[in-house]
Amino acid sequence: MNLARRTFMLGGASLLTLALTGCLGATAPITYDLGSARPGRVSRRSSRTVVITIPKTVQTYDSQRVVVRDVGNVLSYLPEAQLSDTLPRLVQTRLLQTFEAASFPNIGRPDDQLRVDVTLATEIRAFDIDLAQGGLATVTVNAKLVDEARGAIFANQTFTANSAGTIEPAVAAIASLDIALQNVMAQILDWTARNA
């Protein structure tokens, strides 16, 4: 084996070792969960079956990462932190659990194969820590109630909640977003019970 070839192979092996060391030395993100709201029992104006779909959202929020908003609407992600599922799927699950905790009858998901009367369709419009507002946690969700028999929206409202927050430590940022989300989910529950 000539010297040039040997040097190339050794160099490649050294680069591979450095690459593996870099991968192994990387800090794995800490995974955080969000909770459901725990409201009191609600009464309904009807017994129609309501199905909660997975919320729609822009690509930035359709992730396990937590968005940080800075001056000039510059977006980044909370470092070394992630949610236990993608945000839309996690919100759908916690919203359903919020309804169930309030003994809301005839509630489910689309894959429960229920005869659907009303669809609760939501859109996550904000779920971030706003540094321009001093670390304020903001959650905004638009909700629509769709009459499936008529194929028409019969109620539409946007819900927002804020909670004082920070990006350090990450656990405090997640906690403030969790508080705001639970507030929004409780509002959606009450609104749905009155309208569906």
What is the CATH C-level name? Alpha Beta
Q: Approximately how much helix is present in the residues?
A: 25-40%
CATH superfamily, by name, is ABC-type transport auxiliary lipoprotein component
CATH architecture: 3-Layer(aba) Sandwich
- The string of secondary-structure elements, in order, is HEEEEEEHEEEEH
The major β-sheet equals: 8 strands, mixed
Question: How many domain modules?
Answer: 1
CATH topology group? Rossmann fold
What are the low-pLDDT stretches, counting only 5+ consecutive residues below 50?
1-24
Shape: elongated
SS class: alpha/beta
β-strand number: 10
- From the alpha carbons, calculate the radius of gyration and give it in angstroms: 23 Å
Mean pLDDT: 87
| Euclidean distance between termini CA atoms | 79 Å
List descriptors:
disordered N terminus, alpha/beta, Rossmann fold, 3 helices, 8-stranded mixed beta sheet, about 200 residues, two-stranded parallel sheet
